[in-house]
Design goal:
Radius of gyration of chain A: 16 Å
Order of helices and strands of chain A: EEEEEHEEE
Helix content of chain A: under 10%
Shape of chain B: globular
Largest sheet of chain A: 8 strands, antiparallel, barrel
Strand content of chain B: over 45%
Oligomer: heterodimer
Structural class of chain A: mainly beta
Helix content of chain B: under 10%
Distance between the termini of chain B: 19 Å
Order of helices and strands of chain B: EEEEEEHEEE
Number of helices of chain B: 1
Strand content of chain A: over 45%
Largest sheet of chain B: 9 strands, antiparallel
Radius of gyration of chain B: 17 Å
Strand order of the largest sheet of chain A: 1-2-3-4-5-6-7-8
Largest interface: A-B, 30 and 32 residues
Chain lengths: ~150, ~160
């Protein structure tokens, strides 16, 4: 049996605050407070305060995201989204991306697992699905910003 | 099993007193986990014998409130010492007590530590600097609420 995916939403994230912890026993750590917005065929809205990413760069150079987001839909519902994932590529490609240069998405594996939690009746179906995302960097007005395409696992 | 017939003891040593500025308590409704509160923590301070500094903006506590009025906490904070080192602090906690006290707490009123149960366990994540000893301890916190905000006495479990 094959697995299929359906595009759920695209996340556009920015950084409100960033605190570098540095080299810890787990790896290099940075704590970011996040804002942004999201849109998809069934839901759209913005990211609220309380959203953050405790980002870890492991000893092998891979990035591990540990993210929790509070989403507010445009119809006034709250949705909690948590994801963790991996971003990994050749050292050259990773350094290029960190400098804000464009990198072919095929050169960097950037995927996350996504879980939802909500009190909303309308979006209650999100409580019972598993989702994954594919991240990439795009240039917006000259800045390299991350976007995540989130897919429901059907 | 204890090696002797003496009752096992556990001791703790004060690390610091943590004061949190909760700027927003957003009720995200009742989910399968309970009533969810996303409490934004945009500042505060910590002060103890060996470390002191400030709580950085951008922290948050993802709380789950149960129907009986008790709650659990899941909090991530970033702390910066007065000599410029930054470390992370993850907290998992529990809140319980008589319903009238919990109602007062929920309204943001002053609650003495002896009136209810507000405790957490916490883990630090520091870089390889003079504070890396924080990586090797388990912390516990005992909380109460003052007019100015939430206050925890945070101990190292010895």
């Amino acid at each position: 049996m094959t697995v299929r995916f359906e595009h759920l939403l695209t996340l556009h994230v920015g950084v409100r605050y960033s605190d570098e912890i540095g080299d810890t026993p787990y790896g290099w750590r940075r704590n970011d407070a996040i804002n942004g917005h999201f849109e998809g065929p069934k839901l759209r809205g913005r990211l609220m305060p309380g959203s953050d990413d405790w980002l870890l760069v492991r000893g092998d150079g891979a990035f591990n995201a540990h993210v929790r987001l509070l989403l507010e839909t445009d119809d006034g519902e709250d949705i909690l989204l948590t994801y963790s994932g991996v971003r990994y590529g050749t050292q050259e490609a990773m350094h290029k991306q960190e400098r804000g240069e464009q990198v072919d998405p095929a050169e960097i594996y950037h995927r996350t697992s996504v879980l939802f939690e909500t009190a909303s009746d309308k979006y209650d179906w999100l409580n019972r699905i598993v989702a994954v995302s594919r991240g990439q960097r795009v240039l917006v007005e000259g800045f390299s910003v991350p976007i995540y395409d989130v897919f429901q696992v059907l | 099993m204890s090696a002797s017939t003496e009752t096992p003891q556990l001791d703790a040593e004060l690390l610091f007193t943590l004061r949190l500025e909760e700027v927003e308590d957003r009720v995200a409704g009742t989910t399968p986990r309970g009533e969810r509160h996303i409490v934004t923590i945009d500042g505060g301070s910590f002060e103890g014998p060996d470390l002191r500094g400030q709580v950085m903006p951008g922290g948050s506590d993802w709380q789950s409130w149960r129907v009986d009025g008790s709650a659990t906490m899941n909090c991530r904070l970033t702390l910066r010492t007065d000599d410029g080192h930054t470390f992370g602090f993850r907290i998992r906690g529990a809140l319980d007590g008589p319903s009238d006290v919990l109602e007062r707490y929920a309204r943001g009123e002053t609650v003495e530590g002896a009136e209810f149960y507000l405790r957490f366990v916490g883990f630090f994540e520091a870089a390889w600097n003079k504070y890396s000893w924080l990586n090797h301890l388990v912390a516990v916190g005992v909380g109460h609420r003052e007019a100015a905000g939430l206050v925890y006495d945070v101990y190292r479990v010895l």
